[in-house]
Fold this sequence. Notes:
Layout: H1 2-11, H2 15-28, H3 47-50, H4 53-62, E1 69-73, E2 85-89, H5 90-95, H6 104-116, H7 121-128, H8 132-141
Antiparallel strand pairs: 1-2
Helix pairs in contact: 7-8
Amino acid sequence: MEGRRTKLKGLSSHPLYNVWYHMKHRCYNKTSKHYHRYGGRGITVCKEWKDDFLCFYGWALANGWEPGLTIDRTDNDKGYSLDNVRFIPIRENERNRGNLRLTKEIADKIKKEYQKGVNGYKRLGLKYGTHWSNVRNIIKRGQWA
């Protein structure tokens, strides 16, 4: 066990350690500001990775991770697992966020609810699975894509 701890200690400053730590934090720490979009929606980390950074590290290196890439779930409704994770450029990951899944129909619903005073930006963002700034853009600028 000591050898494993020594290896892990040497890798704790590796960028993938940070990816692994935050992936778990979003899914399991209810105090995380992003928990509602991950663990709160039932998103989990597969058993192979949850408690084994070295397993995640080895898999990531063998499956395309390199500096400048970020972790992405191919199916946003499924957890972090070997068959649902890939590494992509940060800009591409940003384009995959909720604002691109919004349709004109959903944008119209958001506008109507906001006009009725039912919810604010943050609550509407949570309800429709997008960031509050996307809701603001719909309300203030009429932009949704």
